[in-house]
C-alpha cells in the first residue's frame, strides 16, 4: 500500500509517499480502507519533533491520526461494527491507503468521507477544553484562533450549550464566525479593548499559539480560566496547556449526535491527494484556515 511517512524530523519536505506493509487490526481495533484523512496541527508538530521530549516516537513513522473510510478488518473482541461499514475515527498513520483505528463511529447520514475525516480530533479537543476551562451556560468564552477546525467545533458546541462566544480571527473570517453564532473581532493591536466592548470574559481558549496568553490572562483575570492547545510555553505564564487526549469514543458519540441534530457542521476548506501531503502541512502551518483541510486517498 501507499503511505505518507518521514524518516527524520524537519520541514514538510521530509514527508515521502512510499510503499509500506499493510497494518492489521489487533484486539479492540478495526482496519479501514481510508478514503480521507484529516489534517491537524499536531501532525506537523509531530513531524517537526516538537513532542519528542514528552511523547517520543520511533522513526520512520507514518503521519495522521484522523480518518474516514470503509471497514475491511475487525479485530478480536470488537462488536457493533462490520466489514463494509462507513466509519470515521482515530488511529495512527492515517495518511495511507489502509489504517488501523482504535476509536470510531458510523458516519452520520448525508456526510461525505471528506467531511467525516475532519471531525474526530477536533471534536475531542473541543469537548475536552470546554470542560477543562470550566465555562458554564450563561457565561462568555473567548476563543482566540476561532475559525479553524477546533474553533469551529468549540463555537458550535458552546452555542448548543447556551454559552456566549467571542471569537477572534482574521478580517476575512469575521462573517464565518458570525455564521457560527460568535461575536467576532480581529487580531492585532487594540484587541483587548475590542473584546471588552463585546462583553465580560469568563474563560478563554488559545487555539492558534500566536502569543496571546498575556492578553487572555488580562481579560479573564484568572490563570486557571485560560487554556492553550498550541502554546507549549503557556504554563510559564500561569495558564494551562492541554495536550493529553481524553475519551475519544465518547467524543465521537457526542459529535455524531450533534451532526445528526444539525448542530455541528465543519466545512472542508481544501482537499489534497496523498502525494501533496507536504502542501497540506504548509497550508495548515500558515493558519487562517476556515474549517478543515483533508487528505484524500
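-> sequence recovered:
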Amino acid at each position: 500500500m501507499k503511505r505518507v511517512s518521514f524518516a527524520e524530523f524537519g520541514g514538510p519536505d521530509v514527508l515521502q509517499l512510499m510503499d509500506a506493509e499493510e497494518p492489521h487490526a489487533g484486539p479492540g481495533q478495526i482496519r479501514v480502507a481510508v478514503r480521507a484523512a484529516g489534517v491537524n496541527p499536531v501532525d506537523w508538530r509531530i513531524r517537526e519533533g516538537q513532542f519528542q521530549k514528552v511523547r517520543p516516537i520511533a522513526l520512520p513513522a507514518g503521519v495522521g491520526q484522523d480518518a474516514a473510510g470503509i471497514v475491511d478488518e475487525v479485530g478480536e473482541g470488537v462488536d457493533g461494527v462490520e466489514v463494509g461499514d462507513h466509519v470515521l475515527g482515530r488511529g495512527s498513520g492515517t495518511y495511507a491507503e489502509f489504517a488501523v483505528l482504535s476509536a470510531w463511529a458510523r458516519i452520520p447520514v448525508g456526510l461525505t468521507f471528506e467531511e467525516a475525516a475532519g471531525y474526530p480530533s477536533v471534536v475531542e479537543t473541543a469537548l475536552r477544553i470546554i470542560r477543562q476551562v470550566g465555562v458554564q451556560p450563561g457565561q462568555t468564552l473567548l476563543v482566540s484562533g476561532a475559525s479553524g477546525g477546533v474553533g469551529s467545533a468549540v463555537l458550535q458546541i458552546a452555542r448548543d450549550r447556551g454559552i456566549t462566544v467571542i471569537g477572534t480571527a482574521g478580517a476575512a473570517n469575521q462573517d464565518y464566525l458570525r455564521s457560527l453564532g460568535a461575536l467576532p473581532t480581529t487580531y492585532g493591536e487594540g484587541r483587548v479593548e475590542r473584546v471588552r466592548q463585546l462583553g465580560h470574559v469568563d474563560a478563554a481558549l488559545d487555539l492558534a499559539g500566536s502569543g496571546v496568553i498575556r492578553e487572555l490572562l488580562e481579560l479573564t483575570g484568572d490563570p486557571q480560566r485560560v487554556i492553550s492547545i498550541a502554546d507549549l510555553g503557556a504554563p510559564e505564564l500561569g495558564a494551562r496547556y492541554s495536550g493529553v487526549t481524553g475519551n475519544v469514543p465518547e467524543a465521537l458519540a457526542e459529535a455524531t449526535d450533534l451532526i445528526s441534530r444539525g448542530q455541528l457542521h465543519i466545512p472542508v476548506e481544501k482537499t489534497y491527494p496523498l502525494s501533496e501531503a507536504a502542501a497540506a502541512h504548509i497550508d495548515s502551518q500558515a493558519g487562517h484556515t476556515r474549517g478543515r483541510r483533508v487528505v484524500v486517498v
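The chain has nine helices and 15 strands.
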